[in-house]
């Protein structure tokens, strides 16, 4: 009875341990975003509820990832996804040997001979005119979309699936911290740009109202309105934007931005399922095209302003598979 009462109040040993861990995560977050936030009394209490929300949300995302992809030479014949994500075995070997995190993982004998990791890539689509059959006729001017992947990167290598899921959740929180820091930086840049434009507009207005005064602007591109009415209209547009940005410029405003993101992480860090039907050349196709592959990816979308997108696939690689690739495709 007494233990149940302690759990309800969050005073039992497990709850107190979770609270200590949460407080440590908040301190790490502040180190990434703005250390001056520690000057505000009660910053831990303000951010703790949002940290609980973000932890639960980010942990749930791992269950959305597509099936594990084995990074090995035999997988090129077994799993068509590998041939679409890499130009060939030599390209795969370049990634595996160039990954510092994977190298450090295998340097520790305690990690074993198998690594589970997260493969992140940048997806791009390029339009072109190519050769294709249309209605039984070979044509050379068919519009095509070629899908390619670059910027491959291996993250959070782990010795087991369970460890991989746990580390991926922690890494996701680190990424969300970076997203918050980037949001704060973009807001500050936006405020400075708008204040600069406001100052130029005010100077232009003064010049336009002064009889016989020549309007001079130091900017190379004269993009300001050429009438008082136009200047006033633009100043009116800037006013609410600047008021909003200035409200977040101080420490209390910064803390509020951090709190808002933590309490609604899905608005700033989400996974979107992307399914692409591609032929062996990475060209988008429709219908029952022979040899086409349905490539399902989860793309992480980071941030609201100027969002960043990365395709994610969980992978598994063994020491022996790297050695085999090195024997067949290594240089020298």
How would you explain this protein's 3D organization?
The protein is of the alpha+beta class and 332 residues long. The protein folds into two domains: 64-179 and 265-329, no CATH class; 183-215 and 222-262, no CATH class. Helix content is 51%, strand content 23%. It has eleven helices and six strands. The protein has helices at residues 2-9, 13-33, 43-61, 75-78, 80-85, 89-98, 100-107, 161-209, 228-247, 251-263, 319-329; strands at residues 69-70, 114-134, 137-158, 269-278, 293-302, 308-318. Strands 1, 2, 3, 4, 5 and 6 form a six-stranded mixed β-sheet that branches. Helix 2 (13-33) crosses helix 3 and helix 8 packs antiparallel against helix 9. It is flat, with a radius of gyration of 27 Å.
How many β-strand runs?
6
Work out the radius of gyration.
27 Å
Q: Given the helix and strand composition, which structural class is it?
A: alpha+beta
Order of helices and strands: HHHEHHHHEEHHHEEEH
Oligomer: single chain
Helical fraction = 40-55%
Question: What integer is the average pLDDT?
Answer: 86
Protein name: Helicase
Organism: Chromobacterium amazonense
Outline of the structure:
With 332 residues, the chain is an alpha+beta fold.
